[in-house]
TrEMBL record, chain B:
Residues 150-179 form the 4Fe-4S ferredoxin-type domain. Keywords: Iron, Iron-sulfur, Metal-binding. Pfam families: Fer2_3, Fer4_8. Its cofactor is [2Fe-2S] cluster; [3Fe-4S] cluster. This is Succinate dehydrogenase/fumarate reductase iron-sulfur subunit. Belongs to the succinate dehydrogenase/fumarate reductase iron-sulfur protein family. Gene3D superfamilies: 3.10.20.30, Alpha-helical ferredoxin. The lineage of its organism: Bacteria, Bacillati, Actinomycetota, Actinomycetes, Streptosporangiales.
């Protein structure tokens, strides 16, 4: 497998192993029934935040998909459906949402700039890797908070989305995703900035002990941060969900 | 690397389509085949042309989304390798590479290299599941599975449903895909309650979807990126015959 990807035989050349961005840790907030704050919208598997936070262990995708699907949803979705009047929704907000999506599609197609969607995706990824990667500093995160909105503004004036809206258009699909990534990237940086401790996979350079190990701050940060969307361009609202440990308590990591 | 690509371009399902040539320069031999297509698309977008549509997702060889018939072979020249795991170092500098979509009656072209593989979903829907009481944990030791059965079921379960078997088959048959699902579920105790209805349901749907019959050509197992063995088709035929002869056919 290694040889197929790298072209190097690990029996002859030492394997080159380095950290890489694998998945976004965290996810959408849900309650114990796996229902989000939108009634009837259940978020399952890796898309929710429930089983992985500052750490994301191997195989948690499979574990969470299986556990949510096998143990939780058979009880909770049925319960929701049984208690809810599932009449067709006739609400002005549906038409509004559709109109919003349509106008975004039209906007994408009308910009006709000079940069591809991929080039913005790559540049955004580079900003995140550089300033919101495993090791981050307050200075770097503040810089990212300047770079992301600037790149987003450039995206909305210079992106080039080819093709039309009435056909299979992978460029248009990608443009919608990258537009969302700007929002998510900014939120991740805001969250990283507010959490001044080192925790799990996140190493805040200012928070380390004398041996250079990650230094926790459980007095101030023993909570999961759930951020509420407050509208476009608005600062998201922080909700703290306390993490309570009855028997086993988090301690400083030590390999000594 | 310098490459000449001949890519199947087709605007939509109704368009007749044609092979279109592209010259590429300065391609890294360490690029994957899909990354090479990304480079081509960047170039096409810069030139104001429509980029090539192709399917991809995980790029780790496990999701089954990537396809492409490369130089006449589904997933290209490397054995047991999906297109996304194929690298340009396997090609020569200056080589001419033909890139086409899966070609089969049951997989109509949507655009360029993207084909509609939803027929596979309908086959799965017609029987590719087991009934199991969910909500509580089953006792693992209460259902013993012989090791050889577990191994054979696991081997069959490696099928990622990409459709390379259909693209390789001169009859456009999905027998290898079908056989993999029948073997995977039919060998396990959890798969027994629906075993006979499953094989009849899935095979009937297979035929209705326009896939051809199997004549044991064996091209499928060679093209399969997961190396699903040909004998799963034997099990498929065995189970179908038994279900039909036993009056269990609906």
């Amino acid at each position: 497998m290694y040889e197929r990807i790298t072209g190097e035989d690990p029996y002859k050349v030492p394997m080159r192993i380095y950290p890489a961005v694998h998945y976004t840790m965290g996810g959408l907030w849900v309650d114990y029934d796996l229902q989000s704050n939108v009634p009837g919208l259940f978020v399952i598997g890796e898309a929710n935040f429930s089983d992985h936070g500052a750490n994301r262990l191997g195989a948690s995708a499979l574990m969470q998909g299986l556990a949510d699907g096998y143990f939780v949803l058979p009880n909770t979705i049925g319960d929701y459906i049984a208690r809810t009047d599932l009449a067709p929704v006739q609400d002005a907000s549906v038409a509004e949402a559709e109109e919003r999506v349509r106008s975004q599609i039209d906007r994408f197609l009308s910009i006709d700039g000079d940069r591809s969607v991929d080039s913005f995706h790559r540049e955004l990824g580079h900003i995140m890797w550089e300033y919101c990667g495993m090791e981050r500093t307050e200075e770097g995160l503040r810089k990212a908070l300047e770079l992301i909105p600037a790149l987003r503004a450039e995206f909305w004036t210079r992106v080039k989305v080819t093709g039309k809206g009435e056909e299979l258009n992978q460029q248009l699909e990608k443009a919608g995703r990258v537009a969302d990534f700007f929002e998510l990237a900014e939120l991740m940086v805001i969250d990283a900035l507010h959490r001044t401790e080192s925790c799990g996979g996140h190493f805040r350079a200012e928070s380390q002990d004398e041996d250079g190990e990650a230094k926790r701050d459980d007095a101030n940060f023993a909570y999961a941060a759930a951020w509420e969307w407050a509208g476009e361009g608005e600062q998201p609202v922080l909700h703290k969900e306390a993490l309570e440990f009855e028997y086993v308590h988090p301690t400083q990591r030590s390999y000594k | 690397m310098k490459l000449t690509l001949r890519v199947w371009r087709q605007k939509g399902p109704e368009d007749s389509g044609a092979m279109v040539g592209y010259e590429l320069d300065d391609i890294s031999p360490d690029a994957s085949f899909l990354e090479m297509l990304d480079v081509l698309n960047e170039k096409l977008i810069a030139d104001g042309e429509d980029p090539v549509a192709f399917d991809h997702d995980c790029r780790e060889g496990i999701c089954g989304m990537c396809s492409l018939v490369i130089n006449g072979t589904p997933h290209g020249p490397e054995q047991r390798t999906t297109t996304c795991q194929l690298h340009m170092r396997k090609f020569r500098d200056g080589e001419v590479i033909d890139v086409e979509p899966w070609r089969a009656k049951a997989f109509p072209v949507v655009k360029d290299l993207v084909v509609d593989r939803s027929a596979f979903d309908r086959i799965i829907r017609s029987g590719g599941f087991i009934s199991a009481p969910t909500g509580t944990a089953p006792e693992a030791h209460s259902v013993p599975v012989p090791k050889p059965d577990a191994d054979a079921a696991f081997e069959a379960a490696e099928c990622i449903g990409c459709g390379a078997c259909v693209a390789a088959c001169p009859n456009g048959s999905a027998a290898l895909f079908l056989g993999a699902k029948i073997t995977h579920l039919g060998l396990m105790p959890q798969g027994q309650p629906e075993r006979w209805d499953r094989v009849v349901g899935m095979l009937d749907t297979h035929d209705e979807e326009g896939f051809g019959g199997c004549t044991n050509t064996g091209e499928c197992t060679v093209a399969c990126p997961k190396g699903i063995p040909l004998d799963v088709i034997g099990r498929l035929n065995h189970d179908y015959l038994k279900a039909s002869a036993g009056g269990r056919k609906k």
